[in-house]
Each structure stands twice: as structure tokens, then as C-alpha cells.
Design brief:
This protein is α/β, with parallel strands linked by helices. It is built from 5 helices and 3 strands; from the N terminus they run βαβααβαα. The chain has helices at residues 19-30, 39-42, 49-60, 70-74, 76-81; strands at 8-12, 35-37, 61-66. A 3-stranded parallel beta sheet has the order 2-1-3. α1 links the parallel β1 (8-12) and β2. The longest helix is centred in the first third of the chain and has 12 residues, at 19-30.
């Protein structure tokens, strides 16, 4: 996959604390045509979420938005994404 295929905005956030805000933000970014990737928007139960999340970060994201709440910056998963 080339850099030209990296066209998604990845939203890094605390799950479940920041899920509602992430869904709101994702809908606002999707409306004007941006491709948005966030676990709460893309993943379903039973999926290999770790593999899918890493693939999105490494191969799809051109930008990462950090939802920098108190919960978010303390979560190891968010720090790993950054």
C-alpha cells in the first residue's frame, strides 16, 4: 500500500469514556466527505480488533486526532496508538 492510499482520519480516544464524543466527532467529519476510522465506528464484536486497529494506523491513516481528555491520556491503549 502506498502513501497515496492513506486517506483516513484516525480518532484515538479512551474507550468507553470518550465513545459518545468520538461518535459525534466522527459523524461531523464524515458529513463533508472525510474517511474516519475509530474503533467505536468500525469494529464489531468478535473481530480481531488489535489487528484491525494496527492496520488502520499503519496503512490507512493520514492523520491521527487525539481526544485528549483526562481519561484518554491515562489509558495505555491511547498512548500505544500515539
Amino acid at each position: 500500500m502506498t502513501a497515496l492510499n492513506r486517506d483516513a482520519i484516525f480518532i484515538s480516544h479512551a474507550n468507553p469514556e470518550d465513545n459518545a464524543f468520538t461518535v459525534w466527532l466522527g459523524s461531523r467529519l464524515t458529513a463533508p466527505g472525510y474517511e474516519v476510522w475509530a474503533d467505536v465506528l468500525r469494529l464489531r464484536g468478535g473481530q480481531d480488533w488489535q489487528r484491525l486497529l494496527e492496520d488502520a494506523l499503519r496503512n490507512k491513516a493520514c492523520k491521527v486526532l487525539l481526544v485528549g481528555t483526562e481519561h484518554g491520556v491515562q489509558k495505555q491503549g491511547v498512548r500505544n496508538e500515539i
